[in-house]
């Protein structure tokens, strides 16, 4: 529902001053997207020596793995190849698309006595990345196109996402729609919170198949960001689901619960 | 998205005649709810001896386990105690509420060459019951009240459902809404398919907390069943989420893909 992202990450990277003294932030993934910079902006204000039980190089789940089928790989290559272009002089330059890294943790340790226990927080995992077995649940990668204000997600649905026999659960589809529209809204507007999702299910998605989620900006009005999303078969011939999303911009304090 | 349920189960229990010869059905949970009767209605038409790798007494995930906190247990007891009543003569009789069992498998083996491989189907698990570790993801139990056409779900959100730091992912909330509204619609109208979910997120749900999903029938119009759903704190003081759902009645052949 609530989204952190590039803007929040950038704010934090400028220094810890804006953050309450009672909170110490660790490298985190926010919504699991857009947060590659976190590992470079650790600030330890109130504790000089801290145990750090996790790798400082967390796994990026958006990179290809052996569970990806040919359709998934093909779509990945299609967009990934457009993340970098060659100039006439033979030099590399940034292309129209950008791949978003994706992690599975969002850690927050509170020293000031907040509502959540440290135990729950340290064990918490991003819902869409909570299963270790590759290919069994959500395999996805997102690409954004800043100029066209578009986002595309390639999504391969694993066998643990079943709803009706042989097909993806409506909640798993809603989860991917929330993830993609929320990430895109964050990319466009900074930290946001999901206010509304309106989802029309047109045709079921077979388990094991690869689909595309196309997300576009509809409009921005004050704190509100309106986006649309279509879920199609990877060749675009079949419309599986259509949705609209409304996201509200929030401040960092709201996200951190301070 | 698509829902099987009591009506489908009852049809199947009347005999396999209505089912295509190319399909052999195994005890299944349909949408994981409402299907306790499946184990008693196995029909093996085309194969005399079949391996059965699973227990014939599948685990009912809606029963209390050690991960349930006091709020979850309290709510469970509240509704479960109303599933049976005592008459003036001191005899037991069915109460206004009924607990729905919940399983994690929906198996379908096709001998006639359907689009899905046997491998995917045999490994498939219901999305909301796909994690073994108790308490880590979706802990929930549903109760229906036929007379009042209401359904209540007690839901304890585990640490693997994280979205924003310390809170439940919007997709996990949508998943529970889809599950509860879909199950209730199936209970009221027989096999259905989700056509629309419109979800308004009012306030975030802290990880580890127990909430209630209240689902009511709005109206029925031909093939359409309209329901509403509110997600509240367990004491009812806080509204977390509101949603409407539209479900379309479908025939069994549609569910089985024949």
Attribute tags:
homodimer, 258 residues, alpha+beta, eight-stranded antiparallel β-sheet, two-stranded antiparallel ribbon, 5 helices, 19% helix, globular
Notes on the structure:
Two copies of one chain form a homodimer. The radius of gyration of chain A is 19 Å and the shape is globular. Mean pLDDT of chain A is 79; it is low at 4-49 and 109-115. The longest helix of chain A has 20 residues, at 170-189. Chain A contains five helices and twelve strands. Chain A has an eight-stranded antiparallel sheet with strand order 1-9-12-11-10-8-7-5. In chain A, strands 2-6 form a two-stranded antiparallel ribbon. Chain A has a two-stranded antiparallel sheet with strand order 3-4. By secondary structure, the first copy, chain A, is an alpha+beta fold. Chain A has helices spanning 6-13, 70-80, 118-123, 170-189, 252-256, and strands at 2-3, 23-25, 84-86, 92-94, 97-100, 108-110, 138-145, 150-157, 192-201, 210-221, 224-233, 239-249. In chain A, 19% of the residues lie in helices and 30% in strands. The two termini of chain A are 17 Å apart. The interface between A and B is large, with 64 and 64 residues.
């Amino acid at each position: 529902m609530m989204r952190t992202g590039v803007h929040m990450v950038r704010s934090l990277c400028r220094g810890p001053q804006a953050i309450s003294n009672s909170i110490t932030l660790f490298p985190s993934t926010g919504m699991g997207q857009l947060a590659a910079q976190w590992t470079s902006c650790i600030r330890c204000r109130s504790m000089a020596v801290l145990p750090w039980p996790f790798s400082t190089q967390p796994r990026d789940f958006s990179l290809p793995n052996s569970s990806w089928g040919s359709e998934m790989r093909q779509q990945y290559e299609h967009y990934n190849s457009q993340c970098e272009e060659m100039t006439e002089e033979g030099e590399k330059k940034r292309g129209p698309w950008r791949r978003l890294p994706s992690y599975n943790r969002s850690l927050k340790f509170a020293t000031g006595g907040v509502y959540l226990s440290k135990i729950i927080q340290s064990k918490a995992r991003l819902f869409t990345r909570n299963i270790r077995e590759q290919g069994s649940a959500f395999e996805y990668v997102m690409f954004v196109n800043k100029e066209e204000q578009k986002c595309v997600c390639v999504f391969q649905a694993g066998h643990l996402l079943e709803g009706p026999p042989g097909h993806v659960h409506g909640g798993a589809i809603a989860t991917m729609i929330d993830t993609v529209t929320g990430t895109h809204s964050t990319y466009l507007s900074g930290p946001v919170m999901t206010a509304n999702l309106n989802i029309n299910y047109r045709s079921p998605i077979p388990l094991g198949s690869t689909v595309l989620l196309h997300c576009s900006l509809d409009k921005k009005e004050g704190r509100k960001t309106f986006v649309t999303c279509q879920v199609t078969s990877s060749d675009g011939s079949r419309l599986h689901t259509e949705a609209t999303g409304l996201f509200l911009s929030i401040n960092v304090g709201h996200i951190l619960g301070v």
